[in-house]
Fold:
Amino acid sequence: MKIICVGRNYADHVKELNNEIPEDPVIFLKPDTAKIHDGDTFYIPSFTNDVHYEAELVVRISKVGKHIQPKFAHKYYDQISVGIDFTARDIQQKLKEKGLPWEKAKAFDGSAAVGKMVNFREMNWDVQNLTFRLNVNGKERQKGHTGQMMRSVDELIAYISTFITLKVGDLIYTGTPAGVGKVEPGDEISVFLQDDAMLNVIVK
Ligand code: MG
Structure:
């Protein structure tokens, strides 16, 4: 499986990092070795002093697809969750300044936490009308609404599948809203979808 992440999909987060609103979606990949799950420990890598959490809606691909049209994209996923796109912001900043790829800042071991999956249709949820939030040590630090995405899940799937074949089990991280911040050893991070706790990780 592979992990495909979307950057700069919420205008308020683009502003908080002083980035430009992209004409086309920004996409990047994480390897399967990046994935950790609910209940796991996230270890801050030794090469960074500034790892940020980014809470995101995560969509799991349920059918192989290439060149998927937006109107058919909903047929290619049924399970969703929330996840954390852990980012070594100090490393990313240096790479961005040089125009280099982001992998060292984004694709390291443990950098893709993913929560328990839920069938959103069985829950009668509209994927573009969901709230999610991230707490650090019980305090709310980040909150988003999927209606604020600049590109909807269906548009993202269509866009990504023009470049990359999507396979069953692939995960798409759909971008983070404003409120990203640094993690510290000992932090307990919890991510909620609607009011359901989906993901809990301890930082070491
Ligand atoms: Mg992100």
User: Anything to note?
Assistant: The pocket of magnesium ion is lined by residues 5, 7, 54, 56, 85, 173, 175-176 (CB under 6 Å). The domain at 3-203 is CATH 3.90.850.10 (Fumarylacetoacetate hydrolase; domain 2). The chain has four helices and 16 strands. The chain has one domain: 3-203.
